[in-house]
Amino acid sequence: MMAEVESVLLENPMVKDCGVVGVPDEEAGKAPCAFVVLRDGNPGSEKSADALRRYVAERLTAYKKPRDVRFVANIPRNFSGKILRRELRKLL
User: Fold this and answer.
1) Domains (ranges, CATH) in the chain?
2) I want to staple 22 with a disulfide (CB 3.0 to 4.6 A). Which of 12, 30, 64, 86 is the partner?
C-alpha cells in the first residue's frame, strides 16, 4: 500500500520526492504518513498538505489517504535508491 500512495504522490506536479510509512491508528490499525520533498525548495504548509491529501483521496480508496503529511528536505535512501523507511520513522 505504501508504494501505491508514493506513486500517486509522485504524479503530483508539486512533489519532487516522497516516502510513506505506516503509523499506528486506532481505527485502521495502521495509517499512512507521507514524508514529502516539494519542488523548487518550497518548505510546505498546511495548505500544501491538505492539497496533497485531497489529491491522493481523489485517486485512491479513503483509507490510503495519508493522515499526516510532513515536509522534509530529502528522503533517505540506500545506495541502490531504496527508501530507508526506518530513518523516516525516526522523524515521527
Assistant:
1) 2-90 (3.30.300.30)
2) 30
* Segment 14-34, tens digit of pLDDT: 999 999 999 887 877 888 999
Order of strands, sheet of 29-38, starting from the edge strand that comes earlier in the sequence = 15-25, 29-38, 68-71
Residues 6+ apart with CB under 8 A from 49: 69, 71
Look at the block and give the residue holding cell 479513503.
Answer: 62
* CA–CA dist 54, 87 (Å, integer): 26
**Contact predicate 85/33, CB 8 Å:** no
| Residue 59 and residue 32 in contact, taking contact as beta carbons nearer than 8 Å | no
